[in-house]
Every structure is written in structure tokens, then in C-alpha cells.
Amino acid sequence: MPCLYITTNVNFDGVNTDPFYSEVTKAVASIVGRPQNLVMVVLKGSVEIVFGGNKEAAAYAEIVSMGGITKQVKRELIATVGSILHTHFSIHPTRFIFKVFDINSLPLPSKL
């Protein structure tokens, strides 16, 4: 069950975000190989973000998944989500940071 969490300084007042949610959910499901009904997307706007010394449109995102993350999947997620953010909210891909985290890659807890 992947969860994509996006924080941005873009103001969404009066913006229909439904097309974004639909497109990004389909993309994540397809890339990670999970059904769409198991993908969670959280989008938080109007957050104070300074990137590169200015407040132009920028975003920080992270995805947490239980498996399904390889180097190729990671690259594809970064490129695709970056492109979707640019298309819907004019956030340039160079002003977007994406953390990809697979909880299955964590070491198993010690039995001590």
C-alpha cells in the first residue's frame, strides 16, 4: 500500500485538484505495481517553502511503500510525479524533491 505525501507552497484555493489526484494515483499504482484502491495520496498546499533562496513554486514529496521499489521504479516515480506536478501546478521539476522509501528494505528487528 503506497502512500504518496506531497507538500507544496502552491495555493489550491479555487483549484480543482481532482484531475491531479486521479492522474497521480493511476501513475503510482502502475509504476509500483499495486491496485489503485491501495494507493493513498495526501496533498498539502500553502506551506511556507523556500527553495534555492526564493519562494517560487516548489514541492517536497515522499512515498512510502511496502515493497515494489527498485532503482528503476524509483527513477520512474521521480520523473512521472515531477511531470504531473509541473503539468497541474506549474512546479518545475528542478524545484521538486522526492524521497522514496520502501519499508521492506529495513533491517529485521533483533530478537534480543
Count of alpha/pi helices: 2
β-strand amount: 15-25%
> How would you characterize the largest beta sheet?
4 strands, mixed
Average residue pLDDT:
93
Could you tell me the number of beta strands?
A: 4
Structural class: alpha/beta
Shape: globular
CATH superfamily grouping: Macrophage Migration Inhibitory Factor
Structure description:
This protein has 112 residues and is an alpha/beta fold. The chain has one domain (2-105): Macrophage Migration Inhibitory Factor (2-Layer Sandwich). The protein has helices at 18-32, 71-89; strands at 3-8, 40-44, 59-65, 96-102. The protein has a four-stranded mixed sheet with strand order 2-1-3-4, covered by helices on one side. α2 links the parallel β3 and β4. It starts with a strand and ends in a 10-residue tail after the last strand. The mean pLDDT is 93. Belongs to the MIF family. This is LS1-like protein.
Quick recap of the structure?
The chain has 112 residues and is α/β, with parallel strands linked by helices. The chain has two helices and four strands.
Throw out a few tags for this protein.
30% helix; Macrophage Migration Inhibitory Factor; 4 strands
Layout of helices and strands:
Blueprint: E1 3-8, H1 18-32, E2 40-44, E3 59-65, H2 71-89, E4 96-102
Parallel strand pairs: 1-2, 3-4
Antiparallel strand pairs: 1-3
Family: Belongs to the MIF family.
Pfam families: MIF (PF01187)
Protein name: LS1-like protein
